[in-house]
Amino acid sequence: MNISNLGPVTGIRGNPGTRLIRCWITLLSITLLAGCSDGHISFLDPQGPIARAQYEHFWFVIGMCLIVVLPVFIFTPLIAWRYRYHGKAVYKPSWAFSKVMDTLIWGVPFVVVAIMSVVLWQQTTTLDPYKPLDGPQKPLQVEVVGFDWKWLFIYPDQGIATVGRLVIPADRPISFRLTSASVMQTFFIPALGSQMDVMNRMVTRLHLKASHTGTFKGRNMQYNGRGFHKQQFDVDAVSPEAFDEFVQRVKQQGQPLGRQAYTALSRRGTSEDVARALGLHGDTVRFSRVSGALFSTIVNSAHADWAAPVARPPRAGPAATTNGDSTHPGTTMPARAIPLRQTTRATSLPQADHQHRETAQ
Amino acid sequence: MSTQPSRHPGLNLGEPHAEAHSANEEFVFGFWVFMMSDFIIFGLLFATYATMLGGQAGGPGPDELFELRGAFIETMLLLVSSFTFGMASLALKYREDRKWLIIWLLISLVLGVAFIGHELLDFHRMFDKGGVPSRSGFLSAFFALVPLHGLHVTAACIWLIALLGQIAVHGLDHGVKISLTRLAILWHFLDIVWIGIFSLVYLGGLA
Amino acid sequence: MNHLSDLLLGRLGRDALPFWEMLKDPTTSSIINGIIATGAAAMVILGALVVAGLLTWYGKWKILWRDWLTSPDHKKIGIMFIIIAMVMLLRAVIEAAIMRAQQALGLGGGFLSPEHFGQLFTTHGTIMIFFMAMPFLTGVINHVMPLQIGARDLSFPVMNTVSLGLTAAGAALVMVSLVLAPFSTGGWSGYPPFTESAVNPGAGVDYWIWAVTLSTLSSTLTGINFAVTIYKKRTRGMNLMRMPLFCWVSLCTAILMIFGMPPLTVATALLALDRYLDFHFFTADLGGNMMNYINLFWAFGHPEVYILILPAFGIYSEIFANFSGKQLYGYTTLVIATMAIAVLSFTVWLHHFFTMGQSAHVNAVFGIATMLIGIPTGVKIYDWMLTMYRGRVRFSIPMVYALGFLMLFTLGGLSGIILATPSVDYQVHNSLFLVAHFHNMLIPGLLFGMLAAYNYWFPKAFGFRLEERWGYRAAFSWIIGFMLAFFPLYALGLLGMPRRTVTFFTPAYLPWTLAAGLGALVILFAVYCLIMQLWQSVRLRQENATPIGDPWDGRSLEWATPAPPPEYNFPVLPEVYSHDPFTEQKSGGRAYQRPERYADITMPANTAMGVITAVTGFLMAFGLTWYMWWLVIASGAVALIAVIARGYARNTTRVIPAAEVQRTHERWLDDVARTTPVTRDHEHTRANRGLAVPPEQGAIQ
């Protein structure tokens, strides 16, 4: 399946049974969703090409499995009833093997699995989160940092950042670089596509695209403490003009991401707590100036240079990669050795506060 | 050559030892299975060590910390002790009296204790050079694998002392024979694990 | 003085008491949660006091010590394992019900604090896997397998008591954590760096580490015991391909335990080194790598789930064959499928973390391997259906569980294939879809199997059948309750709701969480039915007595003994000539024969090793958790001395004289002669004293 096309949903050529079930489920979901204005929460209502492909593969898997599963549902009650103790059916107490039956019950699942394996290989490779999305447009670079319990979104080419809200242009590939500034977390926007783990000192990659404008829900999926359930964010896919306006607005109305802001981020709390710490209302924060090296500094855990110049100029061509971080984690240990003093642990940026009670700033 | 049935892999005591020889079938088999599970643990620690070779975090590495001479001495101590324990097993099987059995066992014990002592001194030397487990992932992995082996050797030595006591109290009865057979397996197994450590950790690190 | 109490108590302080937070900082939330926590702690203390009180009142301490705690008898040990499992089942189901209630009422809030919820899902998972499922299946195999292979006991009875002691110690530790809180909030999987001391320095994660360590050591020893027994103690004529299928799965389960538990022992040990001695295995900095933990954990975790399910498969094989009055279909195929599952279970562990950033090809390989392992499982399902085909199916309570299993487990398999597909897993990983899937495998798979085994073998173990009305109510309530509690979770997972979340802010989730909450209530009712069933059964034990020992017209050797069997199982070890040896004997009129001669029987003597292991194991783990180093050293020393001392022991057996064996056996044979055999029509009536009308050429009457 070529996901770079924005064609209409072709759907799987499943049998009428699965299509009916699919309609019913989608209807049910939409009915339940109709009452709320929370935005798209699930891949059952896909809003991007990745989520759409996953949706279709999901139904394909169910359809194929039903070949093996349906007979169990049909025949178990039938056999149990027909051959009941007080029934009149034939009784063969020593009948314990049949070549035909064995060939069927080994052979059919084997064929089903073989077919599904081919499709699985294809789909896994095509939908690899590390694979850049095709398209005429240059991807937008976004760097994501997971904190306890909020997400920081850095736009390295624009030199801005936000907390708690991700604004992206619709119909344009987004190329994510992700890391964690605390424990292991998982970044997830269900309506758009795959989830991806984020780990401290490592960089993972993700590529998504929103097919059209809309609001989607995003969240952390990996438990990381008592604020886990609040670690959610909104994703707004807007027109390219609206996106440019958004960038301008942030540059004008946001505050610079310096030491004070980073201290607020490092403290355990939600995006709302960060906003409050920085003297703002609501649960999102906008940063008008971000050091270009902030993301790699967090990854490499050297000291941040708060006086460093702002964003690099926009990159030309498809997603350029920095040192080795387009490969998979485990091979992304920092390229340059950081000299460390013998007796202390490596220091990260201002120490994350891991105590139970949040200290006042 | 006798045509006695072999009841388990390794040195069988044979018919003259009647009860112990038959009972060993089950006991020794069980002990081999236990050794397999222990082998998995060591294998996983080897794998962990291999994946953490790169995790030196700027701290001291094999070049600064490993000394081939010391590792070689430890290897010889264990290899010779395996030989002497083998002699003890042969003494158990072929001799009527206990004299040589006890002599060989004592020599093995001395060698085993010498190994542990030398290893402890070696760790101390590494600590002095900053090679402490809290320094890096690489050192953590080293200090999980090698001291676990050392702990096993310690346990084997304690077991050996306990068995010497049992020989004093009960004589060479079949309980003691069964136990000696199993201890022999542990002893040789630890020797093999040490060969792995010497090759992969010390030789590999310094190559 | 202060220094002394620090030394004695380690880091144990008043804040470990469950009501401390509530007293120090009273808010609505801390009070509600404090009351729940204190209530739970009170139950533990009350329960212990009630048991101790009853034992004292009825003067049963000596019997408890002599006949149970120091007994090396595999049948008694099996029963004790199952008792531990059932008590822990009760606790963990209540924890689940509380979590379900919280999520049903929890849109935007709820009554549980996030920390409390964190502990609940951690203890629920840890208990269900390590202290309910493992002891339950260990107990069933312990009790039944030696009887089925015609042995007198396991190969290493004393080691069996040590396994029991280690599990009891772990269970006790988890129970004590209710009184001296908190427990870990890291989930049953305990991923670092969340569980490292930088993030969670308290006693919680340490409780978890040591409880799990005790359990893994116990299971490793059990695996060795089972494997050696099956290899070395089969009776004459019982070659491997004549063993009941339940013994085959026991063998495969044992192999999985031997090879699958060490990775967890290593993972928790390394985590402990990180926490206690500042090592850097899984820290983010200084060269640590958290991904190593995840690989180690799931190298254990995947074989573990097959350890959990294979015994259930074995039980279902016995039940389908017996209650269809027919030979098990496809014995050889089932053996091959079981072995295939055991081997393949070591090749699929990566599917638990597809999202961790591996390359697509690596993910795809493991996805395909996972689908492959579904093939032998599917074959088993069809083999069981074909066992019923052309049989005469009786809808006993075990059969109700088995039929429910057949259909519900298959659904779980379907959701498993969905999760095995990496591209789709990227959507549903760590969501409630995953939770629904593994409960779908564990409840209809493992739990129904255990409950079926409980109903099936109870008359053999205790000499009377379980009461049936409450039994059927329990079975149907479990089936309906499971569906109502977990099918909504599939929907919730697809709608994006993650697991381990105390509350949610999407109103669309509410109808589903409410339905799931209702399901939890039905499950609570099912548990109540099980308790009522046991109560009534004990009351009605004279009426439902089956002393002859064959209430179901069984096919394998365990049914050829009295109920309960004597300590030595068989007066003379039987010789077998085929599958289903007891049915073969009964068909040929050769059952209940008087042996030519009786011999003295040597059995292992009672031993206190199990009790010593339990006490020292518990104290060491407790001491390690609370930094009470003197306790660790002292109990460790006692354990070491006990092991060494045991080596010196020589009077480790007792002889049962031939005359006594003869007396016991002939008394039973006289009973058999006096009893009226019944057909399967009267299987559930008082007339069934455990003697069956013999089959005619294999046809069950």
UniProtKB/TrEMBL annotation, chain A:
Record keyword Membrane present: yes
Domain named Cytochrome oxidase subunit II copper A binding: residues: 137-249
Biased composition (Polar residues): 321-330
Primary location group: membrane
Regions crossing the membrane: 21-43, 58-83, 104-121
GO MF annotations, alphabetized: copper ion binding; cytochrome-c oxidase activity
Protein name, per record: Cytochrome o ubiquinol oxidase subunit 2
From TrEMBL, chain B:
Subunit and interaction comment: Heterooctamer of two A chains, two B chains, two C chains and two D chains.
The name this protein goes by in its record: Cytochrome bo(3) ubiquinol oxidase subunit 3
Domain of life: Bacteria
Keyword Nucleotide-binding: no
InterPro entries per the UniProt record, alphabetical: Cyt_c/ubiquinol_Oxase_su3, Cyt_c_oxidase-like_su3, Cyt_c_oxidase_su3-like_sf, Cyt_c_oxidase_su3_a-hlx
Location, primary (coarse class): membrane
Tagged with keyword rRNA-binding: no
Record-annotated Heme-copper oxidase subunit III family profile domain positions: 1-206
Function in brief: Cytochrome bo(3) ubiquinol terminal oxidase is the component of the aerobic respiratory chain of E.coli that predominates when cells are grown at high aeration. Has proton pump activity across the membrane in addition to electron transfer, pumping 2 protons/electron.
Classification via Gene3D superfamilies: Cytochrome c oxidase, subunit III, four-helix bundle (1.20.120.80)
UniProt keyword list: Cell membrane, Membrane, Transmembrane, Transmembrane helix
Gene Ontology terms: cellular component: plasma membrane
Subcellular localization(s) per the UniProt record: Cell membrane
Transmembrane segment boundaries: 27-50, 70-88, 100-118, 138-164, 185-205
MF-aspect GO terms: cytochrome-c oxidase activity
Native source species: Kushneria sinocarnis
Its membrane topology: Multi-pass membrane protein
UniProt similarity note: Belongs to the cytochrome c oxidase subunit 3 family.
Biological process per Gene Ontology, one example term: aerobic electron transport chain
TrEMBL record, chain C:
Keyword line: Cell membrane, Copper, Electron transport, Heme, Iron, Membrane, Metal-binding, Respiratory chain, Transmembrane, Transmembrane helix, Transport
GO MF term set: cytochrome bo3 ubiquinol oxidase activity; cytochrome-c oxidase activity; heme binding; metal ion binding
Span list, region Disordered: 676-701
Entry annotated with the keyword Aminoacyl-tRNA synthetase: no
InterPro entries in UniProt: Cyt_c_oxase-like_su1_dom, Cyt_c_oxase-like_su1_sf, Cyt_C_Oxase_1, Cyt_c_Oxase_su1_BS
Alphabetical list of Pfam families matching this protein: COX1 (PF00115)
Annotated PROSITE patterns: COX1, COX1_CUB
Compositional bias of kind Basic and acidic residues: 676-686
Family named by the database record: Belongs to the heme-copper respiratory oxidase family.
Name listed for the protein in its UniProt record: Cytochrome o ubiquinol oxidase subunit 1
